[in-house]
Amino acid sequence: MQTRRGFIAGASALALLPSAGFAQGQPSAELIAKAKAERQLVWYTGMVVSQVVRPLAEKFQAKYGIEVRFTTTGDSDTVLKITSQARAGRMEADLFDSPGTSIPPLSKAGLIEPFAPEALAKYAPTFKPQSQLYSGIYALYLTTTYNTDLVKAAEAPKTFEDLLAPKWRGKMVWTDTRAISGPAGFIGNVLSVMGQDKGMAYLRELSKQKIVREPGNQRVILDKVISGQYAIGLMTYNHHAVISRAKEAPIAWVKMEPLVANLGVIALVKNAPHPNAAKLFLEFMFSDDGQKIIAEAGYPPGNPDVSPKDPSIGPVTGGFTSTLLAPEISSQESEPLVGWLKIYDELFK
Amino acid sequence: MTEVIDAAATLPRQRRAGLIGSPTQTQLLALAMLVVIACLVLPPVIALVQNSLFVMNPDGSHGAFTLDNFKHLVSDKGILRSAWNSVQFAALSTVFSLVFGASLAWVVERTDAPNRSLAYLMTVVSLGIPLIIYVPAWLFLLGPIGPLNELYRNLTGNGGNLFNVNSIAGMVAIETLGWLPMSFLLFAASFRTANAELEEAARMSGAGILTMVLRISIPLAAPAALATGLFIFIKTLQAFDVPKLVGTSAGIKLLTTDIYDDIRAAVPPRVGHASAYSVVLTVLVAGLMYLYSRLSLNASRFATVTGKGFRPRPLPLGRLRWLGGALIWANCIIVLVLPILTLLWVALTPFVRPMRLAAFKSLTLDNFAIVLGSKGYLELIVNTLITAAAAASVTMALMVVCGWLVARRHAFHAVTDQLITLPMILPGIVLSVAMMDVALRSPIPLYSTLTIVIIAFVIHFLPFGMRYTYGGVLQIHKELEESAGVCGASPGKTLLKIVVPLLWPAIMAGWVFVFLNASRDLSTAIILAGPDTKTIAVAIFDHAVNGEFSEVAALGLLWSLLMSSIATGFYLVMKRRGSMVFGL
User: Fold this and answer.
1) Do B60 and A332 touch (CB under 8 A)?
2) Which of A307, B109, B442, B446 is 20 to 30 A away from residue A11, measured at CA?
3) CATH code at A105?
4) What are phi and psi of A292, to 5 degrees?
């Protein structure tokens, strides 16, 4: 069992080169036969349907003749649905994906079937935890963004210290979410980089900057920076900034190192009605073919042989360090997140 | 339950004589309705009480008894401040939506003001706009980078804002606009069926329009206004979306602000706090509800639809006609035109930006192309239409019977009325989770079917439907049904031939209201949707989570266009049929 500390991976964890040399193996004939006998699988997803979910489902069905039935849900709906189905002994779901948040409650309820797809062999270790409770699809990076109409590139904050400049007072915004991808993750990142004492001193200074809390996800926050309502966005995704920049939106992201890395993961449900079809689907999703679809949608894929559409957003190709906040520590009911949220409530609310 | 039966048996003789047809038949009907309503309403209400009193285990089952959820409610240091904010917010929103809704409805239904049909168009279209884009549209429009504050800065040259939308006033404004369509529809239905004789008599006796409104129109509308007002007050006391979305950045806290986090942000959702709040609220408002139910004791005072022929004639406003038209236009512009233009702006810009001349060059249809380019909409549209239409039809069918039984104080009226009121206090998520459990345990396969989504909507909208039919029945004088009874009609026949035709405007208004609200509901539909029962809410949620606001706005606009057209079409067809069949 890894310690909690281990899940706050060091600054260079994601920059590790994957262990090369594993040939891309085809799934075993036995798995394919069993999967085909099950004929279908059910996938609860929060990913973009038009760009990721449907293309993956259609390609998989074309290849194996197995139908992928999917529905869009958020993390809380996923947890509610799967726990209710388990209590009633009528499991409908085979797979669910998540930005990490639904992993702790469902693993606590004993409703995840450990599984590591063979296709993950060549991925970096962060994408395949020892517990095998989930498989990482991609890592997304949270950092500081600014409105280029309001802030010149030379004046934009580059380091955590820069955020303390008096000119940014009241002009910075972050989301009000209590998930690890919000202010609590920022706090965790600062504490793990600067240490407890220096980190707390920094956070106390930062709290005097009157950072505005806005409800909504990171995309909503970024839109408010783009519209000019705020000059600087904290804990916003760099790939969102790149997508908007391509449409000539006045937005840029800075490498405020280390960035915060957030894993998008997928997991197999315990007592899934179609376990083999689900496993075969995971093999397909993590194969080069599957990951190309992920890359095409604008996400930096976990597969080391598939490069992101825009190289700048990934740590290896973009040349930046990051702190991984893994799904294991994303539970709002246990440490370390509880402690970070307490700091957030005391200093920033 | 035996007590209730006894109570019915000891009704005064003259009241029993007022029952239509054979008393046993009506009583059987009342009993049947009571059972149906109890089966629908009690499971989620029991779940609510359980959630508030028992620990939730990781697997979702209930554990040990606890009062922590209630303690949590009062543990907040600033609770008095939050409570005061909540009451201010709810009271002001209620008063404003009543005043605007009633005045608009009166002008539309009672006078010869120009462009009256605009008000219905406004209502139907605005009810079709999903709240997930309606609230942000207003925040953008009234916000610091919105056109109004920009105009002010350009005119005055100073850097400040004309007003701050992130305030209690901003919350009240947005919440009021959300309730205005319902308030208008309720009052309009009531004004339409009410006999205008009294108003005409007042005018003939020389009363001015103002005197007539004050002495006749307002008192006549009082029962409808009180019922609607109480309803909106309770719903706004429970509201957490608008207070959270509007107040967070300004640090304004209401009693429900933290509940937003418990329900929307926590994984899994902590429904205990929200449930405890609902329980406390129920106890607090029980007194108000009792007062309100006493009101209908004197219901016949308000009955203006009698056996005498009635044909409401529009009141000529004369020189004030323009004022009526202006009121209609002002409502239409504020409730509909401004938010739609804002959303169009957002949907047509490649990224969210202030309304400036320089930005017009960048207008694009890309967001519409992205939304229309996705496949699989047909299935979602069909599913949504089936659920919304079925939910609206079942709700209104049940509530016609119940509204009549309760308004006429037939057997079990008190308990039926209370049961129908209960879903009002259910937070949406509690209802959805309870329905999920019901479906999973049911011997008939219900889980992941459209049926369970429809049942959940019916439960959720029962109190809304009741407001439409109950208010309507109160206005119809008993003498019509009594004559049907004397002629030997069964209660069923009386309902069908007398009550339904006279109630038709209220039934249609309620149907359209439930249909549009069910079709734009996000949370219930998402929790209960299975892979084969996805509705449009699922697609909107997908775009809201993964895409920019511009994309959500484009999809939401297209969706409300479709839904409003369908609702308007239905309304026109039913209105024509109604006037042919029932001579209205």
Assistant:
1) no
2) A307
3) 3.40.190.10
4) -65, -35
Tell me the C-alpha distance between B229 and B97, whole Å. 9
pLDDT digits (tens, 9 = 90+) for B240-250: 889 988 998 88
Q: What angle do CA B172, B174, B177 make, to 5 degrees?
A: 105
Q: What is the pLDDT of residue B268?
A: 79
* DSSP letter, residue B59: T
Residues 53 to 72 of B: which have CB under 8 A from any A CB? 58-61
- pLDDT, tens digit (0-9, with 9 covering 90-100), for A185-234: 999 999 999 999 999 999 999 999 999 999 888 999 999 999 999 999 99
CATH code assigned at B113? 1.10.3720.10
Judge whether A196 lies within some domain: yes
Same domain, A242 and A279: no
- Inter-chain touch A215–B58, beta carbons under 8 Å: no
On whether both A179 and A283 belong to a single domain, the answer is no
Q: DSSP letters of B181-249?
A: HHHHHHHHHHHHHS-THHHHHHHHTT--HHHHIIIIIHHHHHHHHHHHHHHHHHHHHH--HHHHHHHGG
- Kindly state whether residue A323 falls inside one of the protein's structural domains: no
Task: Decide which of A22 and B455 is more confident.
Answer: B455
Task: Say yes or no: B442 contacts chain A, CB-CB below 8 A.
Answer: no
The tens digit of pLDDT for each residue in B163-218 reads: 889 999 999 999 999 999 989 988 887 787 666 777 778 878 888 878 887 888 77
The band of A1, judged by pLDDT with boundaries at 50, 70 and 90, is: very low
Q: CA B528, CA B266: separation in Å to the nearest integer?
A: 19
The answer, for B534 touching chain A at a CB cutoff of 8 Å, is yes
Same-domain status, A121 and A231: no
pTM: 0.86
In one letter, which amino acid is B523? S
Residue A321 lies in a domain: no
Smallest Cβ distance to B244: which of A173, A215, A247? A215
B436 and B527 Cβ atoms separated by less than 8 Å:
yes
Tally the domains of chain A. Answer: 2
Instruction: For residue B99, give the 3-state DSSP assignment.
Output: helix
Contacts of A101 in chain B (CB under 8 A): 267
**Model pLDDT for residues B273-310, shown as the tens digit of each residue:** 888 888 888 887 777 767 666 665 555 555 666 655 55
Reduced to 3 states (helix: H, G, I; strand: E, B; else coil), residue A42 is strand
Same domain, A343 and A239: yes
The mean pLDDT of A282-292, rounded to a whole number, is 95
Residue in B closest to A40 by C-alpha: B531
Domain interval for residue B18: 2-582
Hey, is the C-beta of A108 within 8 angstroms of any chain B C-beta?
yes
Residues A125 and A148 occupy one common structural domain = no
Q: Are A55 and A83 in contact (CB under 8 A)?
A: no
Average pLDDT value over all residues in chain B: 83
Give A302's strand partners.
Answer: none
How far apart, in whole angstroms, are the C-alpha atoms of residue A326 and residue A130? 13
B103-to-A105, B180, B229, B504 alpha-carbon distances in Å: 51, 11, 14, 22
Select the residue of A86, A226, A228 nearest B59 (Cβ to Cβ). Answer: A86
Residue A9: helix, strand or coil by DSSP?
A: strand
Q: What is the pLDDT of residue A162?
A: 97
- Mean pLDDT over each residue of chain A, to the nearest integer: 90
Task: Give the helix/strand (H/E) hosting A142.
Answer: strand A135-147
Tell whether A322 is covered by a domain: no
- Do A9 and A110 fall within a single domain? yes
Which structural domain range is residue A241 located in?
140-261+334-348
Residue in A88, A176, A332 closest to B440 by CB: A88
Nearest alpha-carbon partner for B379 in B450, B460, B458, B455: B450
Q: In this structure, what token pair is assigned to residue B575?
A: 């209105």
**Of A161-165, A322-326, B141-145, B314-318, which has the strongest mean pLDDT?**
A161-165
